[in-house]
Amino acid sequence: MGSNDESSWRRLSVGIVGGGIGGMAAAISLRRAGHDVTIYERHDFAGEVGASISCAANGTRWLHEWGVDVAKGDPVILRKLINRDWKTGEPVSVYDLGDYEKRWGYVYNMFHRQYMHAMLKDCAMQEEGQGTPAKLKVNFQAVRLGLVDYSKDSALEYWGGQEGKWDKIVLSPCNGGRLLSYYCFFPREMGDYANQTWGGEDRPVEELLAPYPHLDRQVFSHLAIGKEIRPWRLWVQ
């Protein structure tokens, strides 16, 4: 990571929807990267059902990379593939995987889903280890906000700026429509940013919303969930 990347890094507050194996794995990775993680599970417990789950060397590698206590998952290490006769049950062929770890760097684990989930959950939420422990909230339902998807217009869109007024908002979609950039303009007297510098710290969302009490409610709601709120001064001669 170069110096530019390091200077632009910042801690995020990340919400993960779903407390299954995938959610816990994501939580471990994100907490180790230095972020604050909250897991939201719609049921009154976070668990798994089902039978075994295979974890080949490429998956086992990440368990070790993340500092997961693999022994808590009580795995069986795969060492052979045995093909048996349908009627007699006698071995027809045996494929030896005794050199699997030597070839691929890690063993091939076979977990029960419930044990694997508990193992990952412990790692995500325990005090020990790298990063801040993840938080788990059960009985939570993720609900869509029902906002207009302006990215479908494939356009630069403008609000205000008519009649010589300085109040104006410009919307520029990017990242395949997953990110909406809003450029918000208002007169200087509506906000004191005399000490503002380019690339400074993010400002509270309340400061962004304050100059726009009568703004279109759809756009206002978009701004209310905004991130990376960074004002700068624009001088007009």
Automatic annotation (TrEMBL):
Membership in a protein family: Belongs to the paxM FAD-dependent monooxygenase family.
GO molecular function per UniProt: monooxygenase activity
Entry-linked InterPro entries: FAD-dep_Monooxygenase_BioMet, FAD/NAD-bd_sf
Top-level taxon of the source organism: Eukaryota
Name of the protein in question: Salicylate hydroxylase
Organism name: Aspergillus kawachii (White koji mold)
Pfam families on file: NAD_binding_8
Keywords recorded for this protein, A-Z: Membrane, Monooxygenase, Oxidoreductase, Transmembrane, Transmembrane helix
Segments crossing the lipid bilayer: 12-30
